[in-house]
Specification:
The protein is built from eleven helices and 17 strands. By secondary structure, it is of the alpha/beta class. It folds into two domains: 27-347, Glycosidases (TIM Barrel, Alpha-Beta Barrel), CATH 3.20.20; 350-440, Sandwich (Immunoglobulin-like). Helix 3 (74-84) packs parallel to helix 4 and helix 5 (165-181) packs parallel to helix 6. The protein is elongated and about 80 Å long. It starts with a helix and ends with a strand.
Length: 441
C-alpha cells in the first residue's frame, strides 16, 4: 500500500520528465541579453536635475508641455535589438520627469507621438519579447506639484505622500498601458518599501497576473524575491573593489562596480530568476564608453554564465537616435554573443560556496572561473578580466569534471586534449572575453 501511495505522489514528476527533458523555460526565466532604450537625456543633462527649472523650460506660457525632445526613433531601437540578437528589450515609457511617451488620457504631460504603441507594434512584428520601463518612485509631472515632497530634487518620494492621488494615477496608467499594448511585462524603477511599490505589485498581480514584473534594486531586498517574477539591480563595473568618493554619482556607481561579486552572490543566494542592468557608458551620468570596449561584454558573460540576464542601458540623442558610441558598443557585444547564445540561454548555473568552482585550478588572478551545465555537459567559463592572452594549463579534479568522452573549445567546437585531468590552452585559444570549455558526457 505504501509503495502505491509513493508511486501516485511521484506521477506528476514522472509525467513532466517522461521525455527526459524539463519543461521549456520562458525567456524571463533564463539567462539572456537585453537592451533598455533610455530617452531621458537633454542638453545639460544631470540625473539629479532641478525640476522646478526643468519644468519651466518644458512649459509654454499656459503651463502646458512644450515638448521639444528627447524624441524616440523606435524603428531604430527594434532594428538594433534584432541586429544584436537581443533576447528581450525595454523602452522607457515614463522616466522620473513624468513625461509619458504613450497614449494616455490622464495627463497632458505627454508626447504627441504614441511611441509606446510603435514600440509594441514593431517588437511584436520582430518577435522580440518587450517590456516597458516605468518610474513609480519619482514623478515630476507638474500636475502633482501640490503633493510633491521635493519639487526641485529628482529624489522625491511621491509614493510616500498620504492619500490616493498618486496611486489612483498609477492604476489608471497601468490599465492604459496593459490594455492598449499588451507588453510582456513592466520593468519598474525602483523597489522601495513604500506605498507605491506595494500598490503596484498588488494591482498588477490582481488585474494582469500574466504580466512579468520586476523592479530595479529588488536584488537587494530579500522580501521582494517571492513577490516578483524576476529581480534586478545595477552593475556598473566588472570587478572594481574600491569606493570612489569624488562625487555622489561616482560613489553610488562604485557601490555597484563589481559585477563579478554581484553575479556570484546572486547565483548562490537566489532561487528565482534575476538580472543585472549595466549602462553602455561608464554610468548613467557619464555616457562616454569604458576605455576597454570588451569590458561590458565580460560583464555580460559573468552575469549570464552565473544564470542571470544581462540588460544593457543605451542612451539616445535629443533626436531620438541611439548615441553612435552606444550603438557601436552593443553591436560589438552582439558580434561576441550571437555565436555563443545557446551556451548561455540553454545552460543552467551551478551553486557552489565561493566564487571559484570546485575542482578547477591553474588560472591566474587575471581570470575568473564559472561552472555551469548544458544538458548533461559541464561548462567552464574562464572570464578574462584584463584581456590577457597567455598559455594556460587547467587542472581538474572531482566527479563533476570526470567521465567526459570529449572536451571542446566553444563556440568553435574544436576538440581539446584532456589527459591526466588537464587541458592545455595555447595563447590563441584564450579568448579576450570568455573562454568556454565544454565537457561532452
Amino acid at each position: 500500500m505504501l509503495k502505491k501511495i509513493l508511486f501516485l505522489l511521484m506521477l506528476p514528476t514522472l509525467a513532466a520528465g517522461a521525455s527526459g527533458t524539463a519543461p521549456a523555460k520562458a525567456w524571463w526565466q533564463k539567462p539572456g541579453l537585453g537592451i533598455q532604450y533610455q530617452i531621458e537625456q537633454r542638453p545639460g543633462w544631470a540625473w539629479n536635475r532641478d525640476f522646478v527649472k526643468y519644468n519651466q523650460a518644458m512649459s509654454d506660457e499656459k503651463g502646458k508641455l512644450k515638448f521639444d525632445g528627447p524624441f524616440a526613433k523606435v524603428s531604430q531601437f527594434v532594428a538594433l535589438s534584432q541586429k544584436v540578437g537581443a533576447d528581450y528589450h525595454l523602452m522607457e515609457l515614463k522616466w522620473h520627469d513624468g513625461i509619458c511617451y504613450f497614449n494616455t488620457k490622464l495627463t497632458d504631460w505627454k508626447t504627441a507621438e504614441d511611441y509606446g504603441g510603435e514600440f509594441a507594434k514593431l517588437s511584436k512584428e520582430a518577435g522580440i519579447p518587450f517590456m516597458y520601463y516605468y518610474s513609480t518612485i519619482f514623478d515630476h509631472n507638474p500636475q502633482f506639484d501640490s503633493i510633491q515632497p521635493n519639487r526641485r530634487s529628482t529624489v522625491s518620494l511621491i509614493g510616500t505622500v498620504p492619500g490616493n492621488v498618486y496611486t489612483d494615477y498609477l492604476a489608471g496608467q497601468f490599465q492604459e498601458i496593459m490594455d492598449q499594448y499588451h507588453p510582456d511585462g513592466l520593468w519598474l524603477d525602483w523597489y522601495t518599501p513604500d506605498k507605491s511599490t506595494w500598490f503596484t505589485i498588488k494591482y498588477l498581480r490582481q488585474h494582469y497576473p500574466n504580466a512579468v514584473i520586476t523592479f530595479n534594486s529588488s536584488n537587494t531586498f530579500p522580501d521582494s524575491y517571492k513577490k516578483l517574477d524576476y529581480t534586478s539591480s545595477e552593475a556598473h563595473g566588472l570587478n572594481q573593489v574600491k569606493l570612489n568618493f569624488k562625487s555622489l554619482t561616482e560613489f553610488v556607481t562604485s557601490l555597484s562596480g563589481n559585477a563579478w561579486k554581484l553575479a556570484n552572490d546572486n547565483r548562490r543566494n537566489f532561487d528565482q530568476p534575476w538580472e543585472l542592468i549595466s549602462p553602455a557608458g561608464q554610468n548613467w551620468q557619464i555616457i562616454a564608453l569604458r576605455p576597454d570596449l570588451n569590458t561590458l561584454a565580460r560583464m555580460s558573460a559573468v552575469v549570464m554564465a552565473n544564470g542571470g540576464k544581462s540588460l544593457i542601458g543605451v542612451a539616445t540623442e535629443l533626436s531620438g537616435q541611439v548615441m553612435p558610441d552606444h550603438q557601436k558598443q552593443v553591436e560589438l557585444i552582439g558580434e561576441w554573443y550571437q555565436p555563443r547564445k545557446n551556451l548561455f540561454t540553454e545552460a543552467e548555473s551551478l551553486k557552489y560556496q565561493d566564487d571559484r568552482p570546485p575542482g578547477v585550478s591553474g588560472y591566474s588572478k587575471d581570470f575568473g572561473a564559472v561552472a555551469a551545465k548544458l544538458g548533461n555537459d559541464p561548462l567552464l567559463h574562464l572570464i578574462n578580466f584584463t584581456g590577457a592572452q597567455t598559455p594556460i594549463t587547467l587542472k581538474f579534479s572531482g566527479e563533476f569534471w570526470q567521465g567526459a568522452k570529449k572536451v571542446y573549445l566553444e563556440p568553435s567546437h574544436r576538440q581539446l586534449s584532456f589527459q591526466n585531468s588537464q587541458i592545455a590552452l595555447s595563447r590563441e585559444q584564450v579568448d579576450p572575453i570568455d573562454t568556454i570549455v565544454r565537457f561532452e558526457k
